[in-house]
């Protein structure tokens, strides 16, 4: 079974309910307030979530910028981490007691960010396959997820501004 087929198999009613609940503006705001208040302060928001990908934005405002008139690296990292972490959360949702933890992070800053930026992780199928492998084997698994940050250029076309790589450890708790 391909990783794309694996992700499609998790388009269950419970997965759909998780997405619907999380994508509700109030529920997302409450989640950020309780679990990631700094991301809430900076304006990080999940705009797309499904078993294939997630898209997260961070505005360019005084709450997310540095003294050099660009988006602060930590605001970019928060949005990028959210884009990978929410897919992991979706994949482990209602699958038993499973922990997830970042074990490594790497970033490439390519271009100065001075507009709303968007961070996309399109590795949902790989995450779902990895979670299934962790469940099947009972052994901890790791995966490095890429989040690509973009902002619109003068013509409105997305240009890559940064790339983040988060290594997530997924482990079934006994």
Question: Can you offer a commentary on this structure?
Answer:
The chain has 174 residues and is of the alpha+beta class. The protein has a single domain (3-172), classed as Thiol Ester Dehydrase, Chain A (Roll), CATH 3.10.129.10. The chain has six helices and six strands; from the N terminus they run H-H-H-H-E-E-H-E-E-H-E-E. Helix 1 (3-9) crosses helix 6 (124-137).
Short description:
This protein has 174 residues and is of the alpha+beta class. It is 40% helix and 31% strand.
Number of DSSP helical runs: 6
Largest sheet: 6 strands, antiparallel
For the biggest β-sheet, the strand order reads 1-2-4-5-6-3
Cα gyration radius (Å): 16 Å
CATH level-four homologous superfamily name: Hotdog Thioesterase
Kindly report the CATH topology: Thiol Ester Dehydrase, Chain A
* Uncertain ranges: 1-8
DSSP helix fraction: 25-40%
- What order do the helices and strands follow? HHHHEEHEEHEE
Intertermini distance: 27 Å
Which structural category fits the helices and strands?
Answer: alpha+beta
Which of globular, elongated, flat, extended, rod-shaped describes the shape? Answer: globular
Q: What is the β-strand count?
A: 6
CATH level 1 class label: Alpha Beta
In the CATH hierarchy, the architecture is Roll
* Count of discrete domains: 1
